[in-house]
Design brief:
This protein is mainly alpha-helical. The protein has helices at 11-24, 30-48, 67-73, 79-88, 109-122, 127-134, 138-141, 162-185, and strands at residues 57-60, 63-66, 89-92, 95-98. It contains 8 helices and 4 strands; from the N terminus they run ααββααββαααα.
């Protein structure tokens, strides 16, 4: 059985990605931003072997949700992560309002290209429409209710990304082997 593919969550990239998408796509709400991030992370993973934010997505009733990021958006993350997000955006109800421009230096050119592609493809859609579309994703359909969505399932509907998936799985095997040694150094 294949091991679960995991990545490291990067709060700074998350905060800046939320800001970037909120500035480029009309009507940013928490739900809409979560769906846009899902599609940006998925696109980048399929093309380049890693997501943009590194967050773990869960299958929730409203579709894929970045778990650590949603905690930040709800103000339920650690103090430093909440402060980081509040530096870039304010949230009133479910609406997101950028306070400043994102720090684009945290992104690679491919991160920005993936987010731009997502804005062009999905940015004009509302949260409810994005929710409906996300419910057709094999990674969401096959995940357990309220459970983590395996990144391996992101490749399900994209057979042309098979080589990238194999590389991602090999990299995960390397991370699994090295993790105990990294823990010893801490």
């Amino acid at each position: 059985m294949a091991k679960t593919i995991r990545f490291q969550f990067m709060p700074e990239k998350f905060a800046n990605a939320v800001t970037y998408l909120a500035l480029k796509c009309p009507g940013p709400t928490k739900m809409k931003i979560c769906k846009l991030l899902f599609y940006a992370d998925k696109r980048h993973l399929l093309k380049y072997g890693r997501p943009i934010t590194g967050d773990q997505y869960y299958k929730l009733p409203h579709g894929p949700i970045p778990t650590r990021g949603l905690d930040m958006l709800r103000g339920k993350a650690g103090e430093a992560e909440v402060a980081l997000l509040e530096k870039y955006i304010s949230i009133v109800g479910n609406c997101i309002y950028p306070r400043r421009a994102p720090d684009k230096k945290v992104f690679s050119k491919t991160d920005l290209a993936s987010m731009d592609w997502v804005c062009k493809q999905y940015g004009q859609l509302g949260a409810i429409e994005l929710r409906r579309i996300s419910h057709t994703e094999p990674s969401w359909i096959k995940a357990e209710e309220r459970g983590p969505m395996d990144f391996a399932l992101f490749f399900e509907s994209t057979p042309e990304a098979r080589a990238v998936k194999k590389l991602v799985e090999l990299e995960q095997e390397s991370r699994d082997v090295l993790d105990p040694f990294r823990a010893e150094r801490r």
